[in-house]
Task: structure prediction
Amino acid sequence: MTDLSHIRNFAIIAHIDHGKSTLADRLIQHCGGLSEREMHDQVLDSMELERERGITIKAQTVRLMYSARDGATYALNLIDTPGHVDFSYEVSRSLAACEGSLLIVDASQGVEAQTLANAYLAIDAGHEIVPVLNKIDLPAAEPQQVREQIEEVIGLDASEAVEISAKTGAGIEDVLEALVARLPAPEGEADTPLQALLVDSWYDPYLGVVALVRIKNGRISKGQRIRMMATDKAYRVDRVGVFTPARTEIDALGPGEIGFITASIRAVADCQVGDTVTDDRMPVEAPLSGFKPSVPVVFCSLFPADAAAFEDLRESLAKLHLNDASFHFDPENSAALGVGFRCGFLGLLHMEIVQERLAREFDLELIATAPSVIYQIHLTDGTSIDLHNPSDFPDVTRIRNIDEPWIKANIIVPDEYLGAILQLCTDRRGEQIDLTYVGGRAMATYRLPLNEVVFDFYDRLKSISRGYASFDYELESYRQGDLVKVDILINGDPVDALSMIVHRGQSEARGRALCVRLKELVPRQLFKVAIQAVIGGKVIARETVGAMRKDVTSKCYGGDITRKRKLLEKQKAGKKRMRQYGNVEIPQSAFIAALRMDDN
Result:
């Protein structure tokens, strides 16, 4: 075991694309974690999806051994964290396992919205923060100006900020020295009962559940019998190890160390992130405080394209939840789509990533409904309910009022795009709180209803600002809103999967857009099919899919026109009867395409 004074646990935090994963690569290279042959770009972004999108989705841990200038050898436990707002729960969990942070700021871009948000997360976690100015090799780099920005906007002393280029490797030695000199060593007692925080876990088909733990007190070794305090289940440890970044087995982990354990845990539910792991024979009295549970803000329903794959979907969701504790799911039933799950996410990107991971890692074909948020409905009898799914909307006569969630958003954008951004926020019922300027860029603070943000706000923001705007938000409060439920009827039958809750002022435009879209997607029948958007009993938009016409007169030779007319009248009567009893089969491809509709 390493001496506590020679251990440093730190997270790398930054806005998206400011160079966290590239810096992690250089630190691994400098400390000899991997040979030149094994080294490749973004070595800690092991997921195929992370490489494709160029973003970090899962925080990754690695232990590095560094021989400092003072002659001592230090064990550095590095956690590379995601930068996107939707993965902030992943960041806060990683910060709980560390004592310090490296705050990376792009010297050419300056402080962005997520730089600010992640810096505040680190300050709340009681971290010592070392500011690092990256990309100083770029011609547009302005290190001095960015130092002033860090001091003005975040309030951190940036006089000793380390200037580096993670791409070329310049200044990497200075970062390592700053880590050793400025970050505190962990605290803990080796001779007390085991107390370890379960930071992360994932499912391995051969080993069962693999748990990433941070030892607070005591030690954990191979063969030891451990107990999970939340579920009260006991297991014998099979393997203890660390990531260097290769999986390396060791004999034991001591206080202040971060590593993984396996104990043939097959039941996914027995391993809860934030739980305390203790010794089975000598348990600690009280568990660690763990993590504040994540609160989902965006919901959608997931259904298997083939109803027979329901059990596969259940198992896959359980395994994915083990690896991503910020995602929640509950079973539900839909008349149109069968049995599936109502899932909660931290944002739209998070929702997209989970769906993509289910498709790739578990080979599932899914149908997802339109995203929605939680509404608080106050009923006339004085009770209130939380509404996750528009199809559960109570009868209008029972509703006193509806409250919707509002967020507080920070948008940092170059001056020339500010007008268009302010217009976008106003169109989405936003209220301006503040507008300040920091070195040629504007920082606008707005209150916005969350249901206006979940559809395509982020995409519109990026396209209006040509990708230069950065956006970060937090849930603020619930407010009363003039909201209505829009139902879609096809041939008079409601389709629950296409129901939505919208502001009354936008209900007609949304309903009309969806009807127009469905007209292209619903296959033609032998009778006319009406597609209607309704609020209560009032139709607000309608489209009609024309009937296919069979040529019933093709075999009618000779005679006068009355023979043909008789056949056409007979056909007409048959079509009318079909429309009365007709059941329109809507292909799932039509659902998927309709649910992907943006509201442009």
Remarks:
- The mean pLDDT is 79.
